[in-house]
Design goal:
Elements: H1 2-23, H2 27-46, H3 52-67
Helix pairs in contact: 1-2, 1-3, 2-3
Length: about 70
């Protein structure tokens, strides 16, 4: 059912957008995508879809990835 998959697809899509922007070396797009992704990740954890540690790890890794662009 779509209702059960929606949080996962939203989460993975937002993470993918950040990674794609970093691969394209587009810092502005990466920062913008990260600002959108962090609340999505936090909301997914709050709803219990993913564990809080998993959410924190994702945010940390994505932030470090964006920071590599300088």
């Amino acid at each position: 059912p779509r209702s059960t998959l929606f949080p996962y697809t939203t989460l993975f899509r937002s993470i993918k957008r950040v990674r794609e922007a970093v691969e394209a070396k587009d810092k502005d797009a990466a920062v913008a995508a990260l600002k959108i992704a962090i609340p999505v990740i936090d909301a997914t954890a709050t709803k219990g879809v993913i564990h809080n540690s998993n959410a924190s790890r994702n945010v940390s890794r994505l932030t470090r990835l964006v920071n590599t662009l300088g």
